[in-house]
Each structure stands twice: as C-alpha cells, then as structure tokens.
Amino acid sequence: MQFAIDELSTFLAVHLPTKIDVALTNNLDHLATNLVQRLQQDLAVILPTSGFSMLAQCHTQLLELNGNRINQASLFSQNFIIPDLAHTNQYAKFAMNCTPNWLNIMVLPIFLTSTLLYALLRLPTPLSAQQQRWFTRFIDSQLGHHTALQCARDIQPLDMPEDSLLEQLFNMGNVNEKYLAQLSRDARFCQLHAEQLPWLHLALSIPDATIEHAFAVALSPSTLDFYLANGDIKIHGLAIKLPQTPLFYYYWYAQLRHHPLDPLGEGWFGNPASHRSDPFQAQVLIQLMQQFQGSSKAIADLQEHGLRGKILDQNRNKLKAKLVEILGEELAKPYLFEAQRDMKTARFKYRLALPAYQINLN
Q1: CA atoms within 13 A on the CB side of 133
Q2: Which residue of 96, 177, 202, 302 lies most exposed, with the fewest beta carbons within 10 A?
C-alpha cells in the first residue's frame, strides 16, 4: 500500500496547490467548504490504473486542512501530509486505506515466474568448447555469423579422433556445412578410416550429393567396375560417365589384366612400332565396339590402319584427363596406367595400375 500512498501524495503535491490556491490565499469560507467537499468526493474511491495492481481499490479521506479537522482517521488507515500549499505554510493531511487484490497477489507472481522461466528456456544454450572451435572455423571460412552460429550448434559432441576426422574433411573444402552436422550424428562416420575420408569428401562435393550416397562411395571397396551396356564405370562405388571410345580402350586394357594367356595377370601391352600396327588387337577392339554400338569413325580407323601406338597414347591421355578432372590426381592414380620401358624394343609398354582382382568386367 505504501507505493499507492507515495504515488498519490506525489500527484497531489504537484497538482493540489494550484487547484486550491485561490481558496486558501483569499480564505473565502464558501470556497474552502466547496473545496473540502470536492476533495472528499474525488478521493473517496481510487481505482488502480493497471490491471496488474496488487490493490483492488483505495479510499482516501481529507483529515485536516490548514489545522482544521475535517474527519477522524480510521483504525487501519495510513496518513500523509501535503505541505506548503499555495506556497504558504498551510498544509493538508490525508488518510488512505486500500483493499488488496487477492487474485493478482496470488496469480501475478506465478505468471511472472512462468514468463521468466519460459524466456530463460528460450534463450540459446551456450556453445560448448568444441562448438566454439567450429564456430571460429566457420567464421574463418567466410561464413555469415548467423549461419556459422547455427551450423556450430548443430555439431554434436564428438570424441577427439572423430572431431579431428571431421576437421580434416572440412579443411578439404567444398563441403556444405550442413553435411558436417549430419555426419557428427551418424555412427558410420566414426567408423571411417583415413583412406576412406577423401572418397566421402569427393561424394559430398558433387551436385545433388546425399549423405547416404556419400557413405556408399566411402565404404565401397577399391574396385573398378565396367558397365559397357550403360556406357559407364564405377570407381570405388562412384558412377562415372566416360567418352565412348576411350571407355572401350579402358575396357580393353582391363581385359589384358584378365587375359587367360597371361596367368600372372600382368597385363602389359607395348605400343606398336610407328611404322607398323597390330591387326590382331585391332580386331579385338573392333568386335568390342561393334557389340556396344561404338563410334563408326573409330571402327573404320581400326579397320583401315590397325591398332597404332599414337591411337593408344591419345586414348590413355583422354582417360587420364577425365579421371583426374573427376577424382583428382591422388584418387585417380591407382586407376590409371603404369609405364615401363621394354628392354628388347626400347619402346614403352603400359598396363592398368590396378591388379586384376580389383577389376570387374561385368
């Protein structure tokens, strides 16, 4: 109630002097009597201005005006004085008695506590030390503050080896940050070996990448699979579309690794001399291209000139360029060619670097 008394006394101290200046200064009895009646009437019942007030209503009485007793204070009222009315030594004494608003007294604290608790629960939890490190990494990679913060919050707690593995993947670049949060929640990520990580990174870097496809590639065996009917291959589980004619030469070299007359599976084939071609292997390639609707121009060249060294060089170079473009130098290397100088002819011979047991001709 003291707050209500203080508020009313302050209000009256500001406004009451100017209102009663004439009556008290001139000491006109009929004006003073009218003033007392108006004060009694206006202050009889004071309702709170806020619906959240702890008081239902207050009753105020004018007790004295400049020493003249007007009313007797009630038992439970509290008195206050407005001094120096009309810039004189005259004063007014009031009594106030308030009725508590029990509903607000009981409900409002519960409501305020609930609101505060809800607000606290809505506050974002602080970043863990691990998440803070990821936030710094995202910011350093020029990610926006809001996105970096959200991505860091999505990173689930990881043991040091897994966190290090995730950091290695992030440092490889060109991986959408959303995948990092998904990987941190996927138990398969913790089971990856270091040599599988580049394949996961590669699969996540391609357009329309998905976590499931990326894991399928990363966890696939290190094999080279041919699907000539579809015109493509799979390397380490990743489907790759190759130019048609280089694909046939690639398959032809793979066949040499599986050749029945080469039980050791060495698969070496030396480039024919520049002044002559190899008609037998030319016929093998012609049959292969005709079976799978190969280029009529490539078939005609083999029929007319046989298999020449420069044609083999051209197709190996095309294959290398395409695989390095898709896989990168390091990942492509095991699936390309080895070269060795033939001591008898002084010419180079070539074979697939991959052993026969990792090649599926399908």
Answers
A1: 11
A2: 177
What SS3 class is residue 100?
A: strand
d(CA 131, CA 119) in angstroms, rounded, equals 23
**Which tens digit of pLDDT belongs to each residue from 283-317?**
999 999 999 999 999 999 999 999 999 999 999 99
Q: Report the pLDDT averaged over residues 84-108.
A: 68
**β partners of residue 94:** 62, 80
324-349: pLDDT as tens digits: 999 999 999 999 999 998 778 778 89
Q: Which of 57, 54, 67, 59 is nearest to 42 (CA)?
A: 59
Handedness of CA 167, 173, 177, 179 (dihedral sign): negative
Higher pLDDT, 6 or 210: 210
Which residue carries 């015109």 as its tokens?
A: 231
Does residue 121 sit in helix, strand or coil?
helix
Strands (DSSP E) along 111-223, which ranges? none
From CA 321, how far away is CA 319, in angstroms rounded? 6
